[in-house]
Amino acid sequence: MCRIGFPLQQSRRRSGYQRPVPDTSVQVEAKARDALRAAHLYYLQDMKMETIARELGTSRSTVSRLLAYAKRTGMVSVEINPAANISVMAGTQLSERHGIGVQVVPTDGSLDDAQVLQRVAAHAAYVLGTMVSSSMVVGVAWGSTMQALSAALGTHPTHDTVIVQLNGAANPVTSGVGYASEILSRFGQAFTARTEQFPVPAFFDRAATREAMWQETSVKRVLKVQRDMNLAVFSVGAADAEVVSQVYRGGYLRESDAAHLQAVGVVGDVATVFFDAQGRSENIDINSRSTGPALDALRQVPSRLCVVAGRSKISAVRGALAGGLITDLIIDEGAALALLDG
Fold first, then answer.
1. Long-range contacts of 196-200 (CB under 8 A, 24+ apart)
2. Complete domains list, the chain, with CATH
3. Chain centre distance of CA 16
4. CA-based nearest residue to 201, from 229, 171, 165
5. Quick count: other Cβ atoms within 10 Å of Cβ 226?
6. CA distance 137 to 129
């Protein structure tokens, strides 16, 4: 916003008379008059300095000095409206479009995806500190974004809070326990909370094996904790992301699994449960072997915070939004603008 006009003169007061009396004898100097004219043309009519110089019959450098004089003497007052911030506007539009809470993290085109991830993780860590309180059950997925988020967490002491792992992490190549437990441990330390690990593989070889394991007392106990969640924290996995999602590397998926996911139109996953562009997880065979929470169960969690960094995850975000998986979204500016374009 730009306001232009002569600065207010000091009111003259005569003894015994309290009302200000305008001094009509004040003569506007030529320089002030030219400065005001130049300011009107430049700020309100969006004219270039060269054009203004021709109109005033002077040089471009003189116009530049007149504009500086207008600012210095208070003729021009420039205000930046926070509501016009591109990140704020993008967040507001996304929030209205999808009916969820959205925070857009300002970024610029000079950052690569790894740097964007760090910036988004830092902001998400701050926001999470305002969302987690005592006596809550918080479900946490593992992955590249969650690892960055956990590393950025500050200390926010709570009482009787539980951090529970959303899905198993082991695969044929590695146990995954150290990777997932590191994330869980950081969350537990940040919120002085008890942690509940989920010591099962990310995917069973057969659906029947999962059904049998789900009857084990130790596993049923963790599943019960998950059902009591107040908040779930996750990102969306995407095979074509610049920062490749953990589930798509390191031996989690067999070649036949990857081919099937592509054939049925999978766009992403939440906690190793896959979905298509409409957010549907049915008829995706691998989900019957996944240890992540069924998407219908996830939708029952009151607050579901999704943290996203990078435009390459847009298809996955759209699918998650279409499926009603997200109540709160933290996303970088570039990805937010791309999401609005769709």
1. 196/162, 196/163, 196/164, 196/165, 196/222, 196/225, 197/165, 197/222, 198/164, 198/165, 198/166, 198/167, 198/168, 198/169, 198/222, 198/291, 199/168, 199/170, 200/168, 200/170, 200/291
2. 2-78 (1.10.10.60), 85-341 (3.40.50.1360)
3. 62
4. 171
5. 21
6. 14
Distance (Å, whole) CA 83 – CA 86: 8
The dihedral region occupied by 261, where left means phi > 0, alpha psi between -120 and 50, and beta the remainder, is: alpha
User: What is residue 18's predicted lDDT score, i.e. its pLDDT?
Assistant: 46
Q: Name the residue among 268, 270, 266 with its Cα closest to residue 143.
A: 270
Phi, psi of 203 (to 5 degrees): -135, 135
Tally of CB atoms within 10 A around 249 = 12
- Here the tokens at position 288 are 């019957």
Q: Which two tokens stand for residue 252?
A: 């989690």
Give me the amino acid identity at 197: Q
Question: What confidence tens digit (pLDDT) does each residue in 251-283 have?
Answer: 677 778 778 888 889 999 999 999 999 999 998
Q: What is this structure's pTM?
A: 0.74
